[in-house]
Design a protein that fits this description.
about 425 residues, alpha/beta, Aspartate Aminotransferase, domain 1, Aspartate Aminotransferase, domain 2
Amino acid sequence: MTDLYTIQHARMLDQDDPLKHFRQRFVIKDPSIIYLDGNSLGRLPQKTVDHMEIAITEQWGDRLIRSWNEGWYLQSSRLGKKIAQIIGAHPDEVIVSDSTSVNLYKLAYGALKLKEERTEILSDDMNFPSDLYILQGLVKQFGGNRTLRLLKSPDGISSDMTEFVRIISQRTALVTLSHVAYKSSYMYDMERVTELAHMHDALVLWDLSHSVGAVPVSLNRANVDMAIGCTYKYLNGGPGSPAFLYVKRELQERMVNPIQGWFGEQNPFEFKLNYRESEGIRKFLTGTPPVISISGLEPALDMVLEAGIGSLRQKSVAQGEYLLSLARQWLVKQGFRIGSPELSEKRGSHIALKHAEGYRICKALTDPETGGSVVIPDFREPNNIRLGITPLYTTYEEIFLAVEQMKEIMDKKTYMKYPGSRDHVT
């Protein structure tokens, strides 16, 4: 029997991994680099390279504008149907469109117009700042007769549902939260929160950016009203790849899209001077979709569907527990604190480790001159090192070597030679 804290044990776990064959389907030019930042930007699937070559040289280069009638025009809906399978929605409830922030604006605006008699938006202080900026802008846009209330986290890691129950009221028009919190990886009970909001006749809008493709989501079962999400994290769609939005069938005709553009019109190529709103989910489109960027998303979606979200979650939980066991054994005594929920059912697919010198530790991890493995995590203020577990390609051996490298950096105090000044992107 191998020691749990040896590389031999990690390799045994990899050998028994039923998803191990997916790793070879990604572009990994330097296997010695340990990439634990798939929760910010997923790796490049090998099929995407060929897929994009076809999109550029054949569809754009050869077929030119004819490609609009050969697949481009319906691409947003077609890939939306694939995402719908991943997030437990009907095929006609999801569409690929714009950025996550723009989609949040469109749906939050529509929700506030539906609930014009109500004055409050409810979110939390763990939400992604861009989401809060959009909501703050909406408060201004509605003339100051709306307020944004933030549920306060008691520990910076999790949420207090007792406080949520206390502050939601008949004044609440919209509850909008990140399903998985970007810093701590705390995962809300989607069904419970949605039910509580509906008891007060409030609408619910979930941001799935840190959960889609990594944890099971069933929007229909939870009776969710609206959702948004990005595609460049666990869905591996590429940097800045287009986002998606979901609106349940019963709400689609009642909601308005505040950014009326020609792709949300009933028949854009009739070129009518007065806007006629499209039916169904297409009404939430606006301008011309970025078809080349959307094309890059398809091979990755197919891979997630092939692997199955249940299997991906099972591996994610196992690898998260493994990482935490190594951190407790080697890093807690070095001043680290666990910055994610201890219970896997309350946690997404990344692990946060807190340390006062977190930024300089991250710099040491990524520097090949440090010695040992080059590890790429990311840093979130003020002291969070995030280690992203992407079950399609993250190995147990990589997790072992990454935590071992952190231990070495602390033992030798290597981090002390790096300045604390921040890069533009952390």
